[in-house]
Design goal:
This protein is α/β, with parallel strands linked by helices and 142 residues long. The chain contains 3 helices and 8 strands. Strand 3 and strand 4 form a beta hairpin. The protein is elongated, with a radius of gyration of 16 Å.
């Protein structure tokens, strides 16, 4: 029934900081930015009087994320733990995790740990947090 995963939506507090993280640090490219309001967005979000900026971005391989900055319905930022119910993280593949870890750490990105070798030896893995707190898994397949 499902044909494909279209995108992952990420609600952000500071759109410019989030664009810096996803575009400038991770390499996503903006493909569409819109200001949305009106009956359509109210109905599909089950909210009223929505005003939201949406930014669709693609990775070099074409995978898409969507940043959403709600101007009308600001939410309190909460740090979610990886073990909480619901979507816990987004995983991105990189060519050389050691290089990316050092590069991002030098830019102030906070990591849970240095890259770790998976028990089966298949990959190196680490987790960091985007500016809005979303957990990001970086994986290098060996």
């Amino acid at each position: 029934m499902i044909k494909d995963i279209r995108h992952t939506g990420i609600v952000v507090i500071d759109l410019e900081e989030s664009l810096h993280f996803y575009r400038d640090l991770l390499g996503f490219q903006i493909v569409k930015q819109m200001e949305e309001a009106g009956d359509h967005i109210d109905n599909i979000s089950s909210l009223r009087n929505v005003k939201v900026t949406t930014v669709k971005m693609t990775s070099p391989s074409g995978q898409m994320i969507e940043l959403l900055k709600y101007h009308s319905h600001p939410a309190e930022q909460k740090t979610r733990e990886i073990c909480e119910i619901g979507i816990s993280h987004i995983a991105f593949t990189v060519d050389d995790l050691d290089i990316e870890y050092e590069r991002l750490k030098d830019k102030g990105v906070q990591f849970n740990s240095p890259p770790q070798l998976s028990p089966d030896g298949y990959a190196k893995v680490t987790f960091c947090r985007a500016t809005e707190g979303t957990l990001i898994e970086l994986v290098e397949v060996l």
